[in-house]
C-alpha cells in the first residue's frame, strides 16, 4: 500500500553570523547563531509501488530535478540505508531563493527526516545531521535543533537550550544576492588575514537577554549596505519602527527585525509595505520546536 508523509520545511535566520578567513579547501570558517522561523515550505513524500530507486519531484525550482537537494538527499539516504522504493515528492514553495533563509538546505534535511519517518528507519536526528554534511554546509543544522551555534564551515552544530518564540518582520527585496558574490565581495574588502572576533563568546547567555541587548552582528552587512543601499535603509526603518534588533539573514537579501510585541511587529510591517522595490513583507515568528511529521 502506498503511504505518504507531510512535513513543514522551515526557513532560518542568522541572529549572528561572523565569517572568518577562506580556508585551503575553499570554504570559510564561520561562527553563527541559527534560528528556525515559521515561514516554511511544505513537503509531501509518497512511496510508490515500484522498487526502481527513483525520486520524482513536483514544485517550483530553478534547477533540474537531478541537481535538486531533495533528490540528492533521497539518493544519499537510499545508499546509506538500503532503500529501494521509489518516491514522489511534492513541494509547496514559500521560502524564496537567494535570500539567505536556507530554503534548499532545509528542504534537504526535511527530505531525510521524511524518508526516515515514512519507512520507519531507526536513525536519530544526530545521525542524520552527521551524514547530511555531504549535501551542504547548512543542512546539518536543520536536522538537529531549532536554535544552535554553528561553526566550522557549517557542519558543526551545537544545539542551544531554551529557544524562544519571538515576533519577526521579514523583508524580502525584489532582488536576490548570490552567496558566491557575497563571499567574494567580503574577501575583496578585507584583503588579508581576518581573525574571528567572537570566538569564545557565551552565545547562550547573550541570546537570553532582551534583543535590544544583543551584541550579535553579520559580517556580510557592511558590504551589502555598500552594494545595495536599500538593505541599509530597510534595517534602519525596522530599528526606527521599534525593532529591538535588525540585520541581514545569511548573505542576504532578506532582512529581519526582532520584536517582543506582536502589535509593534504588525505596525512595523505596515510601514515597510509602503516602501518600493520590495517583493514581500511578512510578519512571522521564531520557532521553539520543529514541526511534527504527518503520516497519511
Automatic annotation (TrEMBL):
SUPFAM superfamilies: GHMP Kinase, C-terminal domain (SSF55060), Ribosomal protein S5 domain 2-like (SSF54211). Keywords: ATP-binding, Isoprene biosynthesis, Kinase, Nucleotide-binding, Transferase. Its EC number is 2.7.1.148. The keyword Transferase applies. Residues 68-143 form the GHMP kinase N-terminal domain. InterPro entries: GHMP_kinase_C_dom, GHMP_kinase_C_sf, GHMP_kinase_N_dom, IspE, Ribosomal_Su5_D2-typ_SF, Ribsml_uS5_D2-typ_fold_subgr. It catalyses: 4-CDP-2-C-methyl-D-erythritol + ATP = 4-CDP-2-C-methyl-D-erythritol 2-phosphate + ADP + H(+). Pathway: Isoprenoid biosynthesis; isopentenyl diphosphate biosynthesis via DXP pathway; isopentenyl diphosphate from 1-deoxy-D-xylulose 5-phosphate: step 3/6. GO terms for biological process: isopentenyl diphosphate biosynthetic process, methylerythritol 4-phosphate pathway; terpenoid biosynthetic process. Belongs to the GHMP kinase family. IspE subfamily. PANTHER family: 4-DIPHOSPHOCYTIDYL-2-C-METHYL-D-ERYTHRITOL KINASE, CHLOROPLASTIC (PTHR43527). This is 4-diphosphocytidyl-2-C-methyl-D-erythritol kinase. It comes from Marispirochaeta aestuarii.
